[in-house]
Amino acid sequence: xxxxxxxxxxxxxxxxxxxxxxxxxxxxxxxxxxxxxxxxxxxxxxxxxxxxxxxxxxxxxxxxxxxxxxxxxxxxxxxx
Length: 80
Known about the structure:
Elements: H1 3-29, H2 36-61, H3 74-79
């Protein structure tokens, strides 16, 4: 599986979490209860997965300098 495909799938997961957050906010605005743990667990997800794991992959794969060994992995296949 290509790195960009994995990143795209991870974006979809992050988008689902954001949609769940928006839904929870709408429930609160409508006077409905939302467990406080939902917001704590969502914050942990954002810190751990989105910031810690996913953004690191983006930086390593998409935004690393051209001389970096993680940059443009297809380059090795073309030069080998």
